[in-house]
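Following up on my earlier thread - several people asked me to post the actual chain instead of describing it. Fair enough. Here it is, all 265 residues.
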Amino acid sequence: MSAKASPSVIPAEVAHFDALADAWWDTEGPMAPLHKMTPVRVAWARDLIVRRFRREGASGAPLAGLELLDIGCGAGLFAEPLARLGADVVGIDPAPAPIEAARRHAEETGAKVDYRVTTVEELAVEPRRFDVVSAMEVIEHVADPQRFVSAAASLVKPGGLFIASTLNRTLRSFALAIIGAEYVLRWLQPGTHRWEQFVTPEEFAIAARAAGLRMIDRQGVAYDPLRLGWRLSRDMGVNYLIAAKKPLGPTPSVMAGLDPAIPES
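Reply from S.P.:
Thanks for posting it. Predicted structure:
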């Protein structure tokens, strides 16, 4: 399936990340910010999944037995760590070159991840569903965010989780994530992001609820200049993480509010 055939894919975005394939695992290259952010994202996701599926007592491989889909996986920066925690991981991306890089890296490290060149819409017509579906730094690169969230949500098993990370559309994110990160500090290649495609937490929540999901967690991710790294924060003005669950039963068409904790039902 070509990128142009998918309603969620922007061909220019696919071409951009395709061209960076050989640099995905270079910790000092154009993906350096993602490498630095990955430990925070993985720890947050691990803790959510462990609580949701009652794996607190598990050691070594706390996610063993869980099926996880990583949408827009690139070369596997998020998928591989989840596989090492025991999850049965499928990683998909419409860009073929990063998928090849992901497969090569998995062979080198021994990571067991099923990488596929496909789109969320194409996978959604298959019968398989997942305990956890992730979309890390993806929604800001799609053509139709609401349609994308709907397709992703359809791949979540009842009782499962949808987790994502992205950038908020604020003046501060324009100053820091576009001007600062791309043009001043050169953390990212200029043109990596388009500010008008950023999605606010409120917009993300509306799309998730429309897709039958129930919001359970939102966290900001902030850069700590003293530690030269990232940490969870209450400030969602630039980067943020979001999580929602698919109820076991019928979902009301409109649900408001944020659950104070992750229900165990």
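Helices lie at 11-19, 32-52, 79-84, 96-109, 120-124, 145-153, 171-184, 201-210. That should answer part of your original question.
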